[in-house]
Amino acid sequence: MGTAPEFADSVLLPGHDVPLGRYTTVRRLLPHRERRMIGAWCFVDHFGPDDVSGRPGMQVPPHPHSGLQTVTWLAEGLVEHRDSLGSQQVIAPGQLNLMTSGHGIAHAEHTPPEHPDGMHGLQLWIALPEEARHGPARFEHHAALPSRQDGDVTVTVVIGGFGDMRSPAGVHSPLLGAELVHRAATAYTLDLDPAFEHGVLVMSGGATVAGTPLSPGSLLYVGGGRDRLDIAVTGPARLFLLGGEPFDEPLVMWWNFVGRSHDDIVRARAQWMAGEPYGTERFGIVDGCDAGPLPAPELPSVRLKARDRHGHTH
């Protein structure tokens, strides 16, 4: 705990735009060439703020997942989740939808027909460790999460624990996900767990984190071994703090699957594409969706290689 960390330096991870469904574009921040993971956090998409007045908003048809958990977190708008367990849940800002795929699940996410004008939020994945990735699927909705007001900053613990607050969400590795909402310009220091590596995502406003100026839609990796983090904002701002113990299992991430080998991915793809509709045996059926399930893309012509959190192949 007191030794120098392997990754102590800050690394700025700018996002790139990726279409999500027909109507939504997201900024993908993880995985990144410079940093594949933060703890078990292996995938981070930031969308909005978008004006969806008179527009469909998010419309993502049924698709599969395996080997991961999905986290949906909103700052604005509404999203309806449906999955092959029979779950149906509309999420609003300040609420958490957490879906654990285990061996396999299918789900869809849609903005309801009657919705607010704005949409802004995060879609994140958590890699499941070996002992959890073959388990059963489950879905959790948490309408209330622990939060506290520290001066002009409201801290909400979405995943894991922070100080004396702990989220009720069920995860499988030591993790942290917390929203920091600032009402006005302020500067302060966060106490951190030095066993964790951390990252800070700016959702809105301007911030300087560990001496690095950040604009909305950027993620700063701040490494492990830190017991504090200096943050300053220039006015109202919304940040999201990610953290976790370094995840040591090499992963193969392809499309919506997180596996350990090329063969894992080939098997998952084949089992999704089998049946009518897709994926019936392993992934199940998402009822109540107008759109049909998404077909998987073609696999690349070369074998997929497992990569560790540094990006090294195995």
Automatic annotation (TrEMBL):
UniProt cofactor(s): Fe cation
Residues annotated to bind Fe cation: 63, 65, 107, 109
One Pfam short name: Pirin_C
Start and end residues of each Pirin N-terminal domain: 26-126
Membrane-traversing stretches: none
Superkingdom in the source lineage: Bacteria
Protein keywords: Iron, Metal-binding
Pirin C-terminal domain mapped to chain residues: 184-275
GO molecular function: metal ion binding
Record note on cofactor: Binds 1 Fe cation per subunit.
Record family assignment: Belongs to the pirin family.
Protein name as annotated: Pirin N-terminal domain-containing protein
